[in-house]
Amino acid sequence: FTVIPDAVPVLAKLSxxxxxxxxxxxxxxxxxxxxxxxxESGGVFTAGGVDPIKSIFCSLPIGRSSIVxxxxxxxxxxxxxxxxxxxxxxxxxxxxVNPAP
Length: 101
What we know:
By secondary structure, the protein is an alpha/beta fold. 39% of the residues lie in helices and 14% in strands. It has helices at 7-17, 29-41, 61-71, 81-84; strands spanning 22-25, 55-58, 76-78, 94-96. It is globular and about 35 Å long.
């Protein structure tokens, strides 16, 4: 797992005025541990950044959709059409972005 360095200051700024939740897809407990360590070492959880308790993990896209529905955010940003399609009737704002190359 890798944190995109340019994303860290953006997440920090967003965290100043919004509750930011990070939902990461993993296949095992070991991957969850590796992802958490990457977020920590990448500076995502530093002071003023994302609250570590708001880092959530799931193993399937449908799990991510379910988590997002429970959180019921004003804005959800995702890169997976299979996640955002079932959310459209339930959320006011969805941004579908392309995955990084």
